[in-house]
Design brief:
Length: 280
Amino acid sequence: MTLSGVLYGHGHMGRLHAQKLHARPDVRLSIVDPAKGLADTTADTPDFAIIATPTRTHAELALPLLRSGVPCLIEKPLAPSLDLAEALAVHDHLSVGHIERFNPVFSGLSRGEIAYVDVERLAPVPGRHADVDVIDDLMIHDLDLLLHWIGGEVTEVRAKGLSVSGEKLDMVNARIEITQPSGRTAVANITASRVSEATVRTWRAFAPGQYWSLDLQRRTGKHTLWGEPPTTMPIPAIDPLQAEHDAFLNAVRGTRAFPCSGKDGLRALRLADQVRQCLR
């Protein structure tokens, strides 16, 4: 069945969405660029919408669609404020584009066993304008992954940060403790920077008796059982954005729920806000 969709936004992420979706025979796509003042001229209600515009515009674009019953995929972060995120998250047909959920490098990681995580997500000074700080721009990926892979209740957050190129935070380090359903405490040390010399996307995860070293950018990983040599992890040849589209279109067709709901996006934003509160 061919689905009709509308893509809002034609910036960096919007162009990536458009490239993948235009190549799909099961999608008929219209593109709306609000930055150019273009209105949506589609005569019929679309089967789905993707919102890949600046964060400040997510709610105003998505809420009328969601209220009309149109399934929406909104790029992370979900919204510029918790109030707007909560208004969006009440809709069950909302999906949030935390694309790292689809990174195949995590295929060999064991959920629920992790006791300590050390994360680095570093990027050079962006060539594009960011309307959010580094927490919502970069760290939000790993906050969502942390909640997804470890689970449980956040019990402590500490953070330090620095603004380098303007008023918004450009470097942040957060230490987060989570009490897992088993009662064990997991600790995460997460560093995010968008004023670094090189791009780095790494996860080092420790569990009793084992250790994973993951490179999210190169999509490589090693797994070590204590007392044995490390082994190279077999990583499936999966395109994360294509996998995200597959999952979203399955949700649109009603065959399978999207793995990152509006409530998941809201939970990640709440943790991001906890980190930000530590810096005030």
